[in-house]
Amino acid sequence: MSHGEESPAVAATARIASEIAAPAAASVDRDARFPKEAFDALREEKLLSALVPERFGGMGASLAEVARMVSLLSRQCASTGMIYAMHQIQVACLVRHGTTPVLEDYLRCEVVARQALLASATTEIGRGGDVRSSTCAVDVEGDHFRLVKQAPVISYGEVADAVLVTARRTPESPPNDQVLVLCRTPSVTLEPRSGWDTLGFRGTCSLGFLLEAAGSVDEILPQPYGDISAQTMLPTSHLLWASVWLGMADEALSRANAFVRSEARKTPDTLPPSAVQLAELAALHHQLAASVELGISRYCSIADDEEELTTMLFALEMNALKVSGSTLVAELVTRALQICGISGYREDSPYSLGRLLRDAYGAALMVSNHRINTNSAHMLLVAGR
Amino acid sequence: MEERIRGVLAQHGRMPVDVAGISDRADLYQAGLTSHASVNVMLALEDEFEIEFPQEMLKKKTFESVSAIRQALSELGATV
Fold it and tell me: What are the per-10-residue average pLDDT scores of chain A (385 residues)?
């Protein structure tokens, strides 16, 4: 989509990114605080329900539009973009799989009308980062459930209005027979167990918690989590995270470009040495942009085909996007820093790359590339020949 | 054929239940078959029945139950 024909939602996001997220980014990073001002503005414009279909009162935006919005925010403040992405991943799961009347009401009355912010608790202490197995279980009594989970990470948990939590279907179920449960305030409590003082993505406030929740059995998504994961959570996560990295890469390229232009003005008749490095950087950026676009169009082309979404081939493609995109973004920002030199190293220069560099290294670590590659390695034993 | 499939599941499926007690149509994933273990099951089935699963068959549905596996193997011309 060219800039000339951007939708009102994308235009509103662009304005919030440059007018609100950008000036707050340094303090969000320094204080490792939630980017409240950006989210107040996003709520004001009803952008938290961008992905919700119009029949529930949402904007009915496409995943491609939301990906663009994520990139625009991430360009100015990667934490803001990442939180927006993580929220939309949860919304996508509710839209596609929240097919009970109670969950549909939640979309209409809370996500749309009140612009509820949704967080996620898929990992669990003791399961080594494996989101496809749980120790905790849903305990159902009558038409109510109870659930206790030791979550090593719930990003922005302290300010979220609900958390989508994975758990074993019943206390008797094997670890991989999981469901996804909507745990809503005020009947979910989060007791902080670990802090979030990290190198980058500091504004995501990804603390660890002991989560205790109760609610109606109608708030348990009816499909197995394995299906929700394959059809929605895994692909939208990898696509929207990659959109975060693309936004960061956009900014790194733009800063390097501005620096080279300023150098060129000083010596109008000769090509600055950094200009060729900039061309190399632009080619690398193109690689990332192309793989994000390919991933989105691939997902959209099979989004209605439940069987196709569960193929190993598609899972391998999404894993490849995550691993290559998260590696590329760190490479891109590092190269931009080499181009800008001391001006990029300085914190008080328009070419500063410090925060972008710190955030970029989180891409491969916050969801471990090693884990994703291990998962792909298993699949490649039978697929891809 | 079902017994040989059950034999492969028992040996490679790492399931927390007795495979002999699982009905032909029961959901293997709900019974504890993980995606990693399912890869080992696929490799063992290829070995046991001397077939190779084509790319388009490598999806959740193909391996969701004993009867689904039997049908896939039949389509590939596996001999009993």
Answer: 72 98 98 98 98 96 97 98 98 97 97 98 91 95 97 97 97 95 96 97 98 97 95 97 98 98 93 95 98 97 94 95 97 98 96 98 93 92 79
CB A277 within 8 A of CB A335: yes
d(CA A183, CA A4): 41
- What's the order of all strands across the beta sheet hosting A144-155? A139-141, A144-155, A206-216, A188-194
Annotated domain spans of chain B: 2-75
Which tokens sit at A296? 């989105």
Burial B44-70 (b: 16+ CB within 10 A, else e): bbbebbebebeeebbbbebbbbbebbb
Stretch 295-334 of chain A: residues touching chain B, C-beta under 8 Å: 307-308, 310-313
Contacts of A371 in chain B (CB under 8 A): none
CA distances from A267 to A253, A255, A270, A271, A338 (A): 21, 19, 6, 8, 20
DSSP E strands, chain A = 118-121, 139-141, 144-155, 162-168, 178-184, 188-194, 206-216
Distances (CA, A) of A152 to A179, A197, A270, B55: 19, 14, 54, 36
A378 part of contact set with chain B, CB < 8 Å: yes
- Choose among B16, B42, B61: nearest Cβ to A307: B61
Q: Under CATH, which number does the domain B2-75 receive?
A: 1.10.1200.10
Reading the block at residue A173, the tokens are 């179920």
B18 touches chain A (CB under 8 A): no
CA distance A226 to chain B (A): 9
Residue type (1 letter), A255? R
Task: Look up the pTM and report it.
Answer: 0.95
State how far the alpha carbon of A302 is from the alpha carbons of A344, A358, B11, in Å.
Answer: 42, 35, 35
Q: Is A200 left (phi over 0), alpha (psi -120 to 50) or beta?
A: beta
Is A176 within 8 Å of B59 when comparing Cβ atoms?
no
Question: Does B58 contact A312 at a Cβ distance shorter than 8 Å?
Answer: yes
Q: Quote the CA–CA distance of A103 and A116 in Å, as a whole number.
A: 13
Using the Cβ of A173 and the Cβ atoms of chain B, whether some distance falls under 8 Å is answered with: yes
